[in-house]
Amino acid sequence: MTDAAPRLAAVAETLLGAPLPVRVRAWDGSEAGPPGGPVLVVRRRRALRRVLWKPGEMGLARAWVAGDLTVEGDLFALLDRVAGLLWERRPGPDGEPAPAAAATGPAASLALLRDPERRAALRELVTLAGPWPAPAPPPEEAARRGGSRHSKGRDRQAISHHYDVGNEFYERVLGPSMVYSCAYWRPDATLEDAQHDKLDLVCRKLALEPGLRLLDVGCGWGSMALHAAREYGVRVTGITLSREQAVYARKRVAEEGLADLVDIRIQDYRDVKDGPYDAISSIGMAEHVGAARYREYARTLYGLLRPGGRLLNHQIARPPEADESAYRVDEFIDAYVFPDGELSPLAGTVGELERAGFEVRDVEALREHYALTLRAWVARLELHREEAVRLTSPGRVRVWLLYMAACALGFEHNRLGVNQVLAVRSDGAGRSGLPLRLRTWGA
């Protein structure tokens, strides 16, 4: 019989309490659900076992990474249709979040077991899932970590997991700019244009000029350091924990003849001792610091600046929780993408910078810009998919496609934000050295 998809659709609608938003094709070739649009392909019954053993996003993500689930058609469109069933609802004015239709956890499990129709649906799902036991998580992409969270050694492991996967792979995703952070878009811009404009925006906010010293924290493949040295004549120290990034950045520095201006180091920000610097850029690095270490991060950067020096902190933010102690790191992102990465609300970031002694002078939100950037990266990865698989693995490519597409939707739906915070270390007399009309960096 070829009836797996209709049975699966009926189970899903009973458990979700909502109509199935996408068409499904099962391993037996059967289909069910609304016609038109993208199709969720359940290639193996093992996908259902993954969801049974790990309900919610993580089970689905493991099935995707293992290739048990695929999508025919527009990945963004499919994720957009199912997102409302997986995301928790944002808190309303009374502070009480409305539960999502596919809520998980002990309370949700008990609610399922109390409902006779849902108990029957779960039994049907177990039947469809086939022989047990639970499948092992896809091991090739899972991060292995040791040591205490956000210790120097563990941070090196986490950074290596994400960034040391091959520079050629990142070239396929990021393009010639090799910038792995939110671009700054204008109408009809290319990805290269937008990344150039972002780097230049940072330089203008930091008021860079020849002879100044810039510390680029989390310098990646050297793009900010190169731009600042080439276009503004500053002396740049770029630091990263990724050996592959450092090798790549040093090669670029040598090729551009900028070795007298740019020094690339494999170094933890906590070990930088050669201040003071006139300016510090931290672009897409603070997400790796961790809430417990953020005050140390802010104080360290404050101590590395001269009086009157500027910090440009470019960082992804999440909405605040009604109860901040309830915040949990996304399991999929933590296990497969950014180990130990943590997001903070904008207010928390600004507060820690101020506690460290900084005067925050400007905040610019770039949320929509990151959605455009991620869509551009997904398009590049799809275009170069065969090469990317050859350079890494099928699982790695599936991880990157899922996380970038899902994050793009997160920015579009205002579940994620990204902000550039300009802060200054005032001198002893309270003088910031900033002009009265600060926003002179253009549109």
From TrEMBL:
Gene3D superfamilies: Vaccinia Virus protein VP39 (3.40.50.150). Keywords: Lipid metabolism, Methyltransferase, S-adenosyl-L-methionine, Transferase. InterPro entries: CFA/CMAS, CMAS, SAM-dependent_MTases_sf. Residues 129-157 are annotated as: Disordered. SUPFAM superfamilies: S-adenosyl-L-methionine-dependent methyltransferases. CDD domains: AdoMet_MTases. Pfam families: CMAS (PF02353). The keyword Cell cycle does not apply. The keyword Magnesium does not apply. PANTHER family: CYCLOPROPANE-FATTY-ACYL-PHOSPHOLIPID SYNTHASE. Belongs to the CFA/CMAS family. This is Cyclopropane-fatty-acyl-phospholipid synthase family protein. It comes from Streptomyces goshikiensis. The lineage of its organism: Bacteria, Bacillati, Actinomycetota, Actinomycetes, Kitasatosporales.
